[in-house]
Amino acid sequence: MRIIASVVTRARSVSVEKMADGMYKVRVRAVPEKGRANDAVCVALAEYFGITPSAVHIVAGATTRKKMIDIDGIDA
Prior knowledge:
This protein has 76 residues and is of the alpha+beta class. It has a single domain (2-71), classed as 2-Layer Sandwich (Conserved Hypothetical Protein Mth637, Chain: A). Helices cover 18% and strands 34% of the residues. It has 1 helix and 5 strands. A 5-stranded mixed sheet has the order 2-3-1-5-4, with helices on one face. Strand 4 and strand 5 form a beta hairpin. It is globular. The mean pLDDT is 92.
């Protein structure tokens, strides 16, 4: 499954929310340095979908707030 996520870094809490337009809003506590926020996004989405973090891959947008993400093992 491929999703588009809008990421908020340095948030007070970690959350994943599906928006009305089909995008996901992911809030993580991590700072956007050295891939920490990207790793936190993968972990948050893995917990949300009930899969392992290794099944979540950022395909595009590694350095931006808007990311295209592939999730293995989930059918759309």
